[in-house]
Specification:
One of its GO terms (cellular component) is cytosol. By secondary structure, the chain is α+β, with helices and mostly antiparallel strands. It is 25% helix and 29% strand.
């Protein structure tokens, strides 16, 4: 199962980013298209992303890449983007997009949001300039270069006796449970982050951490790293400042939630979320000997 926000299938055309003449030629291509955004939200028409032609004299276009040779761009957002929020209407609309379009939007939103948040040089504080087809900013005062960042996040299942740990975040929709997650800290491996987060949030100590899949998450720009691990025991000590609740879910519990069955013990994450992919992977892996 392909995680959401992956599979754009485009040539990112890194070779053009430092080629001003090549970028100009791409923008002048009559077939070139610019993704239509309302702030950071996509404009969707007929169930697909909406695009427009490049306007005469338009500058500072973010090069998303080439789709079958056609240059695709996104425009810089107007003003700051710190206040941008994702609501249920946006997430429902994204969930209905084809995979490749969801992935294109993720790229465009992440890089556009980065520009909105990084208009000034982190070294000297001067206003920075758009550079390299949108994939950098350069400071005219101190010559520093700044590049888009992606924050790694571990999202994980702990297994014990044929069950997995699921948790409920503060303020989530009624009945929704998911895998636990947390940011990887500086100087920490993925395996160490998985073990630390599970201990901090649920009091569960684990070993044998295994990687399953990954997903870009453009709110604002994270890389979700899905893992599974083995718990030493099933004792829980929930940090209620992080989680409202958590419990050990059986194979039958998870399968029922993923299927959206009436009376399921919990509501699963939406299909575009890596947590859904992770839970489905676990159910499929244990299908031959399900436990209740």
């Amino acid at each position: 199962m392909r995680p959401g926000f992956t599979g754009a299938g485009i040539d990112r055309a890194d070779r053009l980013r430092a080629d001003p003449a090549g970028l100009a030629a791409a923008a002048a291509d009559p077939a070139a298209r610019v993704l239509r955004l309302d702030g950071l939200d996509p404009v969707i028409e007929g169930g697909r992303l909406a695009w427009r032609a490049v306007e005469p004299g338009e500058r500072d276009l973010i090069l998303l890449g080439l789709a079958d040779g056609v240059p695709l761009f996104a425009a810089l957002p107007d003003g700051r983007t710190e206040g941008a929020r994702r609501g249920p209407d946006l997430m429902n609309a994204l969930g209905a997009l084809p995979h490749e379009e969801m992935a294109l939007y993720a790229e465009a939103r992440s890089i556009s949001d980065w520009h909105g948040r990084h208009r000034f040089c982190a070294r000297c504080g001067s206003p920075s300039d758009f550079a390299k087809g949108g994939w950098a900013r350069e400071c005219p005062s101190c010559a520093a270069q700044h590049f888009p960042r992606t924050d790694p996040v571990v999202i994980m299942l702990a297994e014990h006796d044929g069950r997995v740990l699921v948790g409920r975040g503060l303020g989530w929709p009624p009945g929704r449970y998911s895998a636990l997650a947390g940011f990887v800290e500086p100087g920490e491996s993925i395996e160490e982050a998985v073990a630390r987060e599970l201990t901090e949030e649920a009091g569960v100590r684990v070993h044998d951490v295994r990687y399953v899949a990954s997903q870009p998450w453009p709110f604002p720009s994270q890389l979700m790293i899905a893992c599974v691990s083995t718990a030493e025991d099933d004792a829980l000590d929930v940090d209620t400042s992080e989680l409202e609740d958590c419990f050990w879910a059986s194979h039958a519990d998870v399968a029922a939630a993923l299927a959206g069955k009436a009376g399921a013990r919990f509501i699963a994450p939406p299909p575009y979320a890596i947590a859904h992919t992770l839970l489905k992977w676990w159910v499929d892996q244990t299908h031959s000997s399900p436990r209740t």
